[in-house]
Amino acid sequence: MAKKSSKGGGKPIPKVEVNLVISPPEIENLLATLQERFEQNMDRHEGLEWNKIAAKLEGNPEKLTSLNAMEATGGEPDVVGYDAESSEYIFMDCSAESPQRRSICYDEAALAERHKKGVFPGGSAVGLAARMGIELLNEEQYRQLQTLGEFDTKTSSWLQTPTNIRKLGGAIFADRRFGHVFVYHNGAPSFYGGRGFRGLLRV
Q1: Do both 88 and 121 map to the same domain?
Q2: Less packed terminus of the chain by CB within 10 Å, N or C?
Q3: Separation of alpha carbons 75 and 58, rounded Å
Q4: Of residues 198, 166, 163, the one with CA closest to residue 185
Q5: Residue 4 pLDDT more than 70?
């Protein structure tokens, strides 16, 4: 049984679970969901064609596993660009609010600090991203995402943190408030019910 913390009004914090097993019917459903989202949000990826993206996904089943994990944890992944140099399509978590991978520390070292104190958050952003096979958005990527819509108006998301900041015990996160994107700092072991992380996947 997963250990639980009682931070926040005595309510236990369940561990964020990542399912990396996907069946053929689930693949079919996932592709249909991704296609529908792609077609409903063409402003995020003008000039790109779903058929080409689907063909690349079908040729890289491990990418479908990662996308399924993003979808299952509330990320609502969608295509936001194409890298011509690497010939890769770029997916990001496009849910309006930070995905349901919340109450998590920044990384595994921060999580270990909490465990030593008998506190058990839902996991860590860096650790979960690694298990899902995705990247944590950095500040530049997060700002790019925010040009495509208004995200995290009620929540916030951990961001890839520069090494010099992390070495001093900190980590950065961001949100959108008052029509502006803000980037802040916090201790890496901190965790909140309204803070998750957004991921990026290259296909």
Answers
A1: no
A2: N
A3: 20
A4: 166
A5: no
- Quick one: three-class SS letters along the chain? CCCCECCCCCCCECCCCCCCCCCHHHHHHHHHHHHHHHHHCHHHCCCCCHHHHHHHHHCCHHHHHHHHHHHHCCCCEEEEEEECCCCEEEEEECCCCCCCCCCCECCHHHHHHHHHCCCCCCCEHHHHHHHHCCEECCHHHHHHHHCCCCCCCCCEEEECCCHHHHHCCEEEEEEEECCEEEEEEEECCCCCCCEEECEEEEC
Evaluated on CA atoms 55, 20, 95, 84, the torsion sign reads: negative
Of 93, 116, 131, the residue at which a domain comes to its end is 93
189, part of any domain: yes
Do 61 and 112 fall within a single domain? no
Residue in 115, 135, 127 with CA at minimum distance from that of residue 17: 127
pTM of the model as a whole: 0.91
> Could you report the per-residue pLDDT of 88-139, keeping only the tens digit for each?
999 999 999 999 999 999 999 999 999 999 999 999 999 999 999 999 999 9
Residues 122 and 192 in one domain: yes
Residue 38 is part of which domain span?
24-93
∠ Cα 163 169 171 (to 5°): 65
Separation of alpha carbons 75 and 92, rounded Å: 8
Q: How many CA atoms lie within 13 A of 162 on its CB side?
A: 7
